[in-house]
Write the structure tokens for this entry.
Amino acid sequence: MPNHLHLILTLSDCDISLGEIVRRFKAIVSKEAGLKVWQPNYYEHVIRNDQALMRIRQYIQNNPLEEKIEFEQFYK
């Protein structure tokens, strides 16, 4: 994605909260990049069943193609 990131995390028997995981991830990436590249918040959604997981995976896989199509149509 040119302007956002999708992640699916599985947290089983994890002692660290999702918020702390995201905070650490953002800090490490910002440090490596040498600049702050993140928006202040994030969107989270609990995936409750396999059917929802499959739909979300399909969305993530198809999202770059759809964005490319929209980009090309917009700038033609």
